[in-house]
Design brief:
The chain is α/β, with parallel strands linked by helices. It has one domain: Alkaline Phosphatase, subunit A (3-Layer(aba) Sandwich). The chain contains 14 helices and 14 strands.
């Protein structure tokens, strides 16, 4: 029998690299049972889709403060021109504007299904990507070594009739020894999904989550039955015949998931996803949401934002990433159509960039940043948050946009107003969020 540490680190990978199942590293014996026993709920569930702009996007060029003279004074080569000028910003409210690459999202602001939250950040002012990402994903800024994410705590807190895994080691052991009966696990593990190949800290913890590779490629080119056999042998070789039987059941769950997202799937209407990993991730999320299997939290990453050199302005490296970002989100929005009434898309990044451009025509690690909230229930068309200004005396430590909103307050507003979470102290331990007072994100 493998050690507890082996069980906790176990990830199940189909040989093609197409799909990975992960439920705390616990053998996913309960998956097919729950999927068979848990049809689409009466009434569609609401879903939160989190998009992490990993690498620290420059929020000042994403949501441009074109009405502030200081912005142009300190960014002579990378500033986005004001609206009305060639390649200028897309006006939002007479002071802020979108980068022109965000054109696919501009009319969502105008039709009041998109909000911008400005000057959002962490009370722990680290400029380390690793630390800042951990701070945001755990929602416990300044606490090192966190192994549990805020989205996992959210799933545990809002689970209906299930139990969370307060002791994952014991839970794994009980699976092996047969001490857990049907229904002993927390509720539907498809509630939390990651469109990617690795489980982010946001979804680590005591509630099961699914890590999805490319569902459409799972099993491609393999002989019939060979993937099941590989899957079974992987478990048999490392954990014995008991877990090999679990592998049989787990692979049946793979087939269930593939059956609800067949290769012939076509996006609705005129939705067109970018042909890249980000576009495919959002496409998978849309497929699962539309399949009514009970997805409540979905997570996707988009990297490439660490623009120390050659960032560019209206065109260039950052503009290209923003184009992918905006096209992907707009495709997701259009594909889901009327279902966007039950969806909120929330974007985030670990910190912003310096106000002043550097000597390499880029920006360095900063502090506060911008977030976007998109959805049919979003009370949109607004720039939320107190704007601190960009004059030197108003900057954080003389170089960065100052934080006026704790990111946890934005998270809290969304999960309470959209998903009905009540015990926010359990989701954001050590913080006392006050949702609904000023924010109005949703």
């Amino acid at each position: 029998m493998p050690s507890s540490s082996t069980l906790l680190s176990r990830r199940v990978f189909v040989r093609s690299g197409g799909l990975a199942l992960l439920a705390l590293g616990v053998p996913p014996v309960f998956l097919p049972r729950l999927l068979r026993a848990a049809p689409a709920p009466e009434g569609r569930r609401r879903t939160l889709i989190c998009i992490f702009q990993r690498g620290a996007v420059d929020g000042l060029n994403m949501v441009v403060p074109w009405g502030e003279e200081a912005y142009y004074r300190v960014r002579p080569t990378i500033a986005i021109p004001a609206p009305g000028h060639p390649d200028g910003a897309l006006d939002l409210d007479g002071f802020f504007g979108f980068h022109p690459a965000l054109a696919p999202l501009h009319d969502l602001f105008r039709n009041r299904t998109l909000n911008v939250v400005q000057a959002v950040g962490s009370p722990h002012p680290t400029r380390s990507h690793f630390e800042a990402q951990a701070d945001m994903e755990s929602a416990r800024p300044g606490t090192r070594g966190e192994r549990e994410g805020w989205l996992n705590r959210l799933l545990a807190e809002t689970a209906e009739g299930g139990r969370t895994l307060e002791d994952p080691v014991a839970h794994a052991r009980d699976h092996v020894t047969g001490q857990l009966g049907v229904g002993a696990s927390a509720s539907n593990p498809v509630r939390g999904v990651v469109a990617g190949s690795a489980l982010p800290l946001s979804l680590r913890g005591g509630h099961p989550a699914l890590v999805l590779g490319d569902l459409l490629e799972a099993g491609a080119g393999a002989e019939p039955g060979s993937l099941e056999e590989d899957f079974r042998q992987l478990y048999a070789s490392e954990a014995g015949e008991v877990l090999a039987r679990s592998a049989d059941e787990a692979f049946r769950a793979v087939r269930v998931l593939r059956s609800i997202v067949p290769e012939r799937y076509r996006a609705s209407g005129e939705a067109s996803y970018p042909d890249d990993p980000f576009g495919r991730s959002l496409r998978q999320i849309a497929q699962l949401v539309k399949a009514d299997v009970g997805v409540e939290v979905a997570f996707a990453d988009l990297g490439g934002w660490d623009t120390h050199r050659g960032q560019g302005g209206s065109e260039g490296a950052m503009a290209q990433r923003l184009h992918v970002f905006a096209r992907g989100i707009r495709a997701l929005h259009d594909d889901l159509g009327a279902r966007m009434d039950e969806v909120v898309v929330l974007t985030m990044s670990e910190f912003g960039r310096t106000v002043r451009e550097n000597g390499a025509r880029g920006t360095d690690h900063g502090h506060a940043n911008s977030m976007l909230a998109i959805g049919g229930r979003v009370r949109g068309g607004r720039i939320l948050g107190d704007w601190p200004g960009l004059e030197p005396e108003l900057l954080f430590r003389g170089r960065d946009l100052a934080r006026t909103t704790d990111f946890r307050d934005v998270f809290a507003e969304v999960v309470s107003a959209h998903l009905g979470a009540e015990r926010l102290d359990r989701i954001f331990p050590g913080h006392d969020p006050d949702p609904g007072v000023w924010r109005g994100v949703v």
